[in-house]
Specification:
The chain is an alpha/beta fold. It has one domain: 3-Layer(aba) Sandwich (Rossmann fold). The chain has eight helices and eight strands, in the order ααβαβαβαβαβααβββ. Helix 6 crosses helix 8. It is globular. It catalyses: a 3-demethylubiquinol + S-adenosyl-L-methionine = a ubiquinol + S-adenosyl-L-homocysteine + H(+); a 3-(all-trans-polyprenyl)benzene-1,2-diol + S-adenosyl-L-methionine = a 2-methoxy-6-(all-trans-polyprenyl)phenol + S-adenosyl-L-homocysteine + H(+). GO terms for molecular function: 2-polyprenyl-6-hydroxyphenol methylase activity; 3-demethylubiquinol 3-O-methyltransferase activity. Pathway: Cofactor biosynthesis; ubiquinone biosynthesis.
C-alpha cells in the first residue's frame, strides 16, 4: 500500500502502543502538552488561524490539531498510526472540538490528492521518525497554497542533542520512553533548510525550544542546538 511507503513500522508500533495515554498530561506525552501552548502561540503570531484551512502532518493523538481548531481553523489531521488516530477522533467527540477531522493517510498521498489546498501546513516532531524526511517536506510544500505557511519542528543532530534529547530526556529525566528517538535520524537546521529550499519554500523564521529540568519549564529562544522550529512560506504566484 503506497500510504505506508515513507513510514517505519517500528515507529508506528511505538506510538500506537502508547496511544491510550496521549491525552493524559502526566503521561509519556507530557512534554507535548507542555510545549503545545508555545508552538501554537508562535504559529498564531505569524499567521492568525481563524478561518484558515490547516493540515497537521503526523498529528498523532491530535494535541496540536485540536488546539488549532479551537482557534477557529478548519483542521485536518493525518497520520499512519491507526490507534493514535482513533484516540484523536474520540477526544474530538468527547471534547466537542469543532472543525477538526482526522484521516489515516500519508503526507505524500494527500499531496497527490489535494495539492495547493491548505493555507497552513504543520509538521511537528515528525520528520525525525520517517525514513525519508525530504519526501515529507516536498509533500508539505505541495499541499500549501501560494503565499501559505509551512511549520516544521524537529531535533538537531550534534553531541549536545544526543546528550539532552536522548540521554537526558529518555534515560535520566524519563521525560520520554526509552527508544523514542534515534540519533542518526535527527536533522541539522542546515539540512532542513536545504530540503525546504529544494521544495520551493522560503525560510522566514527559526526558533529554538529549551527546557529547564529544575523548574520543569519549556520556553522558546534563539538557541537551535537541540529542539528547533522553522516557519517557511511558499512564494505567491507572480
Amino acid at each position: 500500500m503506497s500510504d505506508t511507503l515513507n513510514a517505519d513500522p517500528a515507529e508506528l508500533a511505538k506510538f500506537s502502543e502508547l496511544a491510550h495515554r496521549w491525552w493524559d498530561p502526566e503521561s509519556e506525552f507530557r512534554p507535548l502538552h507542555q510545549i503545545n501552548p508555545l508552538r501554537l502561540g508562535w504559529i498564531q503570531q505569524l499567521v492568525p488561524l481563524s478561518g484558515k484551512r490547516v493540515v497537521d502532518i503526523g498529528c498523532g493523538g491530535g494535541i496540536l490539531a485540536d488546539a488549532m481548531a479551537r482557534q477557529g481553523a478548519q483542521v485536518l489531521g493525518i497520520d499512519l498510526a491507526t490507534k493514535a488516530l482513533k484516540v484523536a477522533k474520540l477526544h474530538a467527540l468527547e471534547a466537542g472540538t469543532p472543525n477538526v477531522h482526522y484521516r489515516e493517510q500519508s503526507a505524500e498521498a494527500l499531496a497527490a490528492a489535494e495539492p495547493g489546498s491548505f493555507d497552513v501546513v504543520t509538521c511537528m516532531e515528525m520528520l525525525e521518525h520517517v525514513p525519508d524526511p525530504t519526501s515529507v517536506v516536498r509533500a508539505c510544500a505541495t499541499l500549501v497554497k501560494p503565499g501559505g505557511w509551512v511549520f516544521f519542528s524537529t531535533i538537531n543532530r550534534n553531541p549536545k542533542s544526543f546528550l539532552f534529547a536522548i540521554v537526558g530526556a529518555e534515560y535520566v529525566l524519563n521525560l520520554l520512553p526509552r527508544g523514542t528517538h534515534e540519533y542518526m535520524k535527527f536533522i541539522r537546521p542546515g539540512e532542513l533548510a536545504s530540503h525546504a529550499r529544494g521544495a520551493g519554500l522560503t525560510l522566514e523564521q527559526t526558533r529554538g525550544m529549551e527546557y529547564n529540568p529544575l523548574t520543569r519549564r519549556y520556553w522558546m529562544s534563539g538557541n537551535t542546538s537541540v529542539n528547533y522550529l522553522f516557519a517557511t512560506r511558499k512564494p505567491d504566484v507572480q
